[in-house]
Write a structure and sequence with these properties.
Nucleotidyltransferase, domain 5, 447 residues, globular, alpha/beta
């Protein structure tokens, strides 16, 4: 086991990744954090005070001092939270603001009488409050995050019978929907509406900034249509063996991470042929399952130079995709004297021999560079996750009695080999489909 990280050495982390804290003690910290985020801060303080007294009684003064500091920190946070209801009162408060093409539904979360947070649901198009409400309900309430017993809203937000039944089913109890006309309830829904109006203003400001970026990219690259949706593709590999293609998406001012995709390149001899890998990824993106669930991009950006751009254009021509505009972004081979105002990266377009001349700090260039860097980042993070899972699978392979079903159960319950290795036999044996004999065999093989 390596040395503890710097945060642990400085007393800012309990050291779970280095096994510097027991599972039981770490579970206590996690449970306290969950209680605090649910708005039960006073409950957490009570628990910490009991532990502090016990530590002081046992003359464990350093531990007692640490608990005292944690209590003070939590009390400071709670002092900054607005008390808007009665102690123990849980409710959500909804407000709405809309314009011709954007709607925002804001939810204020009140737990134990305190305002602990908020959520903004933004819907585009000719929006009615009911559409924004449905988007919020679909995104927010589920079994893991059930609705509170009371929801306050203004008269313009319509909870019909179907919506009320849905909430009651999720919450496993009757949810009271109230539309206050006076008093504290009316002040709260007006506060939610005021927050929604501010969020709408900020959203429309971002949209205007995005429109400026889109216009500048179109002008700089002389595109036929506005690039409201841009996708960037990157090919990466580990020593030429594991080859991946990653695609990331930017649309109207924001990264659409739900539309990110990672492709494992499966063709023969792809390790040393980035062009062939690029062709495979493009074909799978525009003819595979992604093509049926995601719209076409207005601009498809390739990480590479003229060669990669030419191969991408040929592949898209072969699959009959002519309406998507293409460009490539590449690191410059060299700089010339007196060109310090030009970008070090170069942008290539189909049918053009020389790169597009763009100023280094232009909005358009920064957007294209950001997308290229995001594609790199997404590929690298995906590599790490897959390698960790593959290492775990390789160690589990060959253990007698551990087939696909049991491997799947282990991968679901534990996050790493180290967690399985340090887990008690009883914990492994308690998993569905396991027993003590199999659990002991797994522990023996992983030592």
């Amino acid at each position: 086991m390596g040395r503890p990280c710097l945060d642990y050495q400085m007393g800012r982390c309990p050291g779970p990744c280095g096994q510097e804290i027991s599972k039981a003690d770490y579970r206590i910290i996690v449970d306290e954090l969950v209680d605090f985020l649910k708005g039960n801060g006073q409950k957490v303080i009570g628990s910490l005070k009991r532990r502090m007294k016990e530590a002081a009684h046992e003359r464990m003064y350093e531990e007692a001092a640490g608990l005292r500091d944690r209590i003070a920190a939590i009390e400071t946070v709670l002092e900054k939270q607005d008390v808007v209801g009665d102690p123990g009162e849980d409710m959500d408060v909804l407000g709405y603001a809309g314009s011709a093409d954007t709607g925002v539904l804001t939810c204020l979360f009140i737990r134990s009488g305190m305002l602990v947070g908020r959520s903004d649901t933004v819907v585009s198009g000719a929006v009615e409050p009911g559409e924004a409400l449905d988007a919020f309900l679909a995104k927010h309430y589920r079994a893991a995050v059930p609705p509170p017993p009371v929801i306050l809203c203004l008269g313009g937000i319509d909870f019909d019978r179907a919506r009320e039944e849905l909430l009651s089913e999720i919450g496993q109890r009757r949810i009271s929907i109230r539309k206050p006309a006076r008093g504290r309830g009316l002040r709260l829904v007006r506060l939610a509406s005021k927050n929604a109006a501010q969020a709408l203003k900020e959203t429309e400001s971002r949209h205007r900034e995005a429109l400026d970026r889109i216009t500048e990219v179109r002008k700089a690259l002389r595109l036929k249509t506005s690039p409201e949706r841009i996708e960037c593709v990157d090919i990466s590999h580990t020593s030429g063996r594991e080859v991946y293609g990653s695609t990331v998406v930017w649309e109207k001012g924001r990264l659409v991470k739900d539309h990110y995709r990672l492709y494992t390149v499966s063709g023969p001899d792809r390790g040393g042929d980035d062009y062939a890998s690029l062709s495979e990824v493009i074909e799978r993106r525009f003819t595979g399952t992604a093509s049926s669930v995601m719209p076409l991009p207005d601009l498809f950006l390739v990480d590479g130079g003229k060669g990669q751009l030419s191969r991408a254009a040929r592949t898209m021509d072969e699959i009959g995709l002519h309406e998507v505009q293409l460009a490539a972004i590449s690191k410059a081979r060299s700089g010339k004297p007196g060109e310090s105002t030009l970008a070090r990266d170069e942008i290539f377009l189909p049918g053009r021999l020389n790169p597009v001349r763009m100023e280094k700090h232009s909005t358009a260039m920064r957007l294209l560079q950001m997308l290229r860097d995001e594609a790199h980042r997404f590929a690298l993070s995906s590599h790490r996750k897959r390698r960790g899972k593959e290492d775990l699978l390789s160690r589990l392979d060959g253990i007698a009695g551990v087939g696909p079903t049991r491997r799947r159960a282990l991968l679901t319950h534990f996050r790493s080999l180290e967690e399985i290795r340090t887990a008690p036999v009883e914990e492994i044996a308690s998993l569905k489909g396991f027993n003590r004999s199999v659990a002991r065999r797994i522990k023996e093989n992983l030592q």
